[in-house]
Design brief:
It is a single chain. With 307 residues, the protein is an alpha+beta fold. The protein has 2 domains: 2-143, PK beta-barrel domain-like (M1 Pyruvate Kinase, Domain 3, Beta Barrel); 146-302, MoaB/Mog-like domain (Molybdenum Cofactor Biosythetic Enzyme, Chain A), CATH 3.40.980.10. 30% of the residues lie in helices and 28% in strands. The strands form 3 sheets. Strands 1-6-5-9-8-7-11 form a 7-stranded mixed beta barrel.
């Protein structure tokens, strides 16, 4: 539980913010504040935990708002949060959009005085999802974003139990380990189906309606008579991301010409990232080695936070 210790506004950027009895959070951020607007850093927050550390270094007491934070909090280490996490109470809902920021040096009032500022390292920023009145003494709950990931394996033989779904297991391990390494929570659902167009389409549409963050398929991307994954997925994509799959085909196709026969696709529908991978465990490892390094940035871009 996080307690609001102070709410603060300023009429000009680059100046300290003054504590006031209450603020109105609306679709542009903090009403009347210089930093409000239709962008991702509508509201700034800083914990008293960070302010006290800096006060000791500055050898003076730092007032709430001096670091230009809109909301001064106590009770959680804010800078350990991640973009897409949520702070909320019965009326207000804020989505974390950025941790820290570039220091503006001489354009910052506190920096001009003491030659340093804690906001670039330990302040966080958020945008308003649901607005309302906020005042000192209010409390907020913290809810980390849990990434919902669906892994769909297409295999006639594996779905009959003739062999294990090794590719699906590799995908689950790789994607779960990736988010764990980023200190992020994830929940993976594995789905095993035969190479049937209608079943794949039904599963895909269900995952999209359930707002999964990521859907990854394995199998059905070749040119065999039962390979139907691209035919099902392509019509469901709103935006295609061809670069990833083209690069993988080119990279591995130089040594293994058969890799050029893969028809894997990647794209986006709503806020769901979609990747269709070949069925072999080796190919899954190769594709994920290229997808994971760009995945975090892709997620930010999907939510309007990429630069």
């Amino acid at each position: 539980m996080i307690e609001v210790k102070s709410v603060n506004i300023s009429l000009e950027k680059g100046t300290i913010k003054k504590s006031i009895p209450e603020i109105l959070l609306d679709s542009s951020g903090v009403a009347g504040d210089a930093h409000s607007g239709s962008w991702h850093r509508q509201v700034s927050l800083l914990g008293t935990e960070s302010i006290l550390k800096f006060s000791s270094k500055a050898k003076r007491e730092i007032s709430f708002g001096e670091f230009a934070e809109n909301i001064t909090t106590e009770g959680e280490i804010l800078y350990k949060m991640n973009p897409l996490d949520v702070l909320f109470n019965d009326t207000i809902r804020l989505e974390v959009t950025q941790i820290g920021k570039k220091c503006h040096g001489d354009n910052c009032a506190i920096f001009r005085e003491v030659g340093n500022c804690v906001m670039p390292k330990e302040g966080i920023f958020a945008r308003v999802i649901n607005g309302g009145i906020m005042k000192p003494g209010d409390r907020l709950e913290y809810q980390p974003h849990v990434f919902k990931i669906a892994i769909i394996t297409l295999s006639d033989r594996a779905s009959k139990g003739e062999y294990k779904d090794l590719s699906g297991q590799i995908l689950e391990t790789r994607i779960a380990s990736h988010f764990e390494s980023k200190n992020r929570k994830s929940r993976v659902q594995r789905i095993l189906i035969p190479d049937e167009r209608e079943i794949l389409e039904m599963q895909f549409k269900k995952c999209l309606s359930d707002n999964y963050d990521i859907i990854i398929t394995t199998g059905g991307t070749g040119i065999g008579p039962r390979d139907i994954t691209p035919e099902v997925v392509n019509p469901l994509l709103e935006k295609e991301i061809p670069g990833i799959m083209d690069m993988v085909r080119y990279k591995y196709g130089q040594n293994i010409p058969a890799a050029l026969l893969s028809r894997s696709v990647a794209g986006l529908t709503g806020k769901t990232l979609i990747f269709t991978l070949p069925g072999s465990p080796k190919a899954v490892e190769e594709y994920m080695a290229e997808i994971l390094p760009v995945l975090d940035h892709a997620i930010l871009m999907v939510h309007g936070l990429g630069h």
